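Appendix B, Record 12. Input sequence as logged:
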Amino acid sequence: MQNLEFIELFKQNKQNGSFSFAPGRIEFLGNHLDYNGGDVLGMAVNAGVYCLGVPTDDNTISLFSENIGGSRWLGSVDGFTKQSGNFSWTNYCLGVVKELQNQNLAPKNGFHLLFSSDLPTSVGLSSSAALELATAHTLLQLAGNTVERDQLANICRKAENDFVGMPCGILDQGTSAFGKKNNLVCIDCDQNKFSNLALPPDTEVWIFNTRIKHDLVDSLYSTRHKECQEVLNIVQSKFPEINLLTECNPSMLDATEIPENLKKRGLHVIEEQNRVRAFKEGLESNLNLAVLGSYLADSHASSSDKFENSCSELDFLADQLNSHKSVLGARLTGGGFGGAVMAWTRDSFSENEAVTITENYKNHFKQQIDFHQFRASDGVRTAHLYDENPFDTIR
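Logged structural output:
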């Protein structure tokens, strides 16, 4: 089935079909804290993944992406395996299908899903989580089932952990689920609690993309996850009452025999947790914005020096932005090892100034990069075909 055929099928079956949108997310503050049980701050953005769904009368599954050429995948609800190569993107969808089946929430028959996205990829905006949330929301509609947002986020996280094989925490899926216009999403990853925190109206968020692609499944992300667990195990051998790395303090690390590289990982997590809490409390009490922004700059320095998930390109952008008078704070966002830098700015920061930053980068690295400005968005939701229509062939 080609794209046009699918669109026509959807038009004929709109009463039984579904249309969903899930936003990408910016990790605002709290680098690698989610799987360590910490507190993190995310922001759902005004771009993401759209999903059209149509039920079938048999057990056929069809997945098609407008953004990935030649990526129409065919299978069956009765059984499927992890995909590779050009179809690797479908694992985020298939993992969701599998988890919905495990919880008896999936459609009983087959379905066609068509995806489109206006979200930049390989920028650390978690297009994968948006793909998962859009898939889950659409399939729940097709099955006539509803779940709370926290359950939806956890279904998608489990799909990524178990099927995709990515040991992520709840930040990505939780932010995409609980996004709110003009607000951050606050997540207590230990207690799985979600809330929102209003952003100052005279501030903006920009993303500068290094175009260094990072495939987190195959990168050092999993290594850092393992190292954090090793730190926790060492601390627990002396302090058995500790359950999470974010419950530790530096003196506990000093009291153990721990390799220097692992000690650095632990210090980053502990200090990053303190920065998140200080930022949240400061924003709630109207603390000076420059002080709040310094937590972001300190976060990047720690990610670079202690967690070592930065690179020279990310460091260059962070330095350029953090020295700018209209930038409150800048830091790498997402897993790191490439991707993008986020800048939290005053509204006086302009597109011309963003262009200057990218020109400085080009002069230094001989590579042109791009930038994006995003607004805080509402989370996953039912989309309306004629108000939110990324599919050019639907009128």
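The first strand starts at residue 18 and ends at 29.
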